[in-house]
Design goal:
The chain has 7 helices and 9 strands, in the order E-H-E-E-H-H-E-E-E-H-E-E-H-H-E-H. The chain has 227 residues and is α+β, with helices and mostly antiparallel strands. An 8-stranded antiparallel barrel has the order 1-3-2-9-6-8-7-4, surrounded by 4 helices.
């Protein structure tokens, strides 16, 4: 199993709320309620909708990003098959311009690491997209002790090199999960700056960023659409 992570800004002409609403209520159902004849579809799917940080949490590295989407596939071949169908080319792909600025999109195939802790269904997440100064792996585990205990759950994923041989936009993607907005914001104001200070010597800081986002797995999206 591999995961495609996609981060991007809202499309021009729409507010963050309008773009996120389209992704939740229009594009999402096109993915998880695809018709039976749609052909190959993702193995799993989730959305993450970025929330504004409060003033005290505007630490360095805040990302200019409104949407983070996670899409799982059984293999690279499955991904290629799913993005080659008429349903993807004629329905899903054209709709992307209705919520995301394609120029801003940063995407990476990742190898998922172990999941630590238990994430609530309606989690609030802090994503760290970290780029190392040097080529090769970026080690973050030794600096994670305080940050890991501050979250209900966390995971460390490793982006894979793109097929064209270029370096992925992040060396490591860390996801912290919290029960509510207040807990996530406290983390952004306290544990996160200390973690970033510890990692700073190894980071390409201008290329590293973090976002605070509300998590929407498919069951939550279905409930929202039915409300």
């Amino acid at each position: 199993m591999i995961k495609l992570m996609i981060a991007g800004r809202r499309c021009p002409g729409k507010t963050r709320e309008e773009a996120q609403r389209h992704l939740k209520l229009v594009h999402g159902p096109l993915v998880y309620n695809a018709p039976a004849d749609a052909g190959a579809m993702p193995a799993a799917y989730a959305q993450n909708h970025v929330i504004d940080h409060p003033p005290e949490a505007l630490a360095r590295g805040r990302g200019d990003c409104d949407l983070v989407t996670e899409v799982w596939f059984d293999s690279v071949g499955h991904l290629r098959e799913a993005t080659s169908t008429p349903y993807y080319r004629e329905v899903l792909q054209p709709d992307e311009a209705n919520f995301v600025d394609q120029v801003s999109v940063r995407a990476a195939l990742v190898r998922e690491g172990p999941r630590h802790g238990t994430e609530p269904p309606a989690a609030v997440r802090v994503f760290l997209f970290l780029k190392g100064q040097a080529a090769g792996p970026l080690t973050v585990e030794p600096a994670m002790a305080e940050a890991a205990t501050a979250a209900l759950a966390y995971a460390i994923d490793t982006p894979l090199p793109p097929p064209d041989g270029t370096a992925p936009f992040a060396s490591v993607i860390v996801t912290f999960s919290f029960a509510d907005h207040d807990a996530a914001r406290r983390f952004c104001a306290t544990a996160l700056p200390r973690l970033m200070d510890d990692l700073a010597p190894a980071l390409d800081e201008p290329s590293s960023f973090h976002v605070l986002a509300e998590h929407y797995p498919v069951p939550r999206l279905r409930a929202l659409a039915a409300a």
